[in-house]
Predict the structure.
Amino acid sequence: VQLVESGGGLVQAGGSLRLSCTASGLTFDDYAIGWFRQAPGKEREGVSCISTFDGSTYSSDSVKGRFTISSDNAKNMVYLQMNSLKPEDTAVYYCAAVLTPFRYSRTCHRADTIDGSGMDYWGKGILVTVSS
């Protein structure tokens, strides 16, 4: 299984970026895909998650209303559209996948999904820097 993030970079505060996560080596519809981030000196934070088989999503309060997660199942890709970016959004962003038994649509809302401890596969991460 391989997860590859793309689309990161440097953006000014108030700007937008779209991150992409390309998955391979798995049956895409059987997984929930999450985005996580880790800023220097801080703990990993679950940002958003999507159950690819039914499109149900979860987003943390810190990004709700600004970030939108979506998936293109035909391409095995998940996107994170990030708008109204703030300097505190600066972090390395990771996508990760977790197998959803019986396609349980609440997988994204499980505590071990939100904190990342239950994820099965991880990408290498990509840096997003928001300048003030």
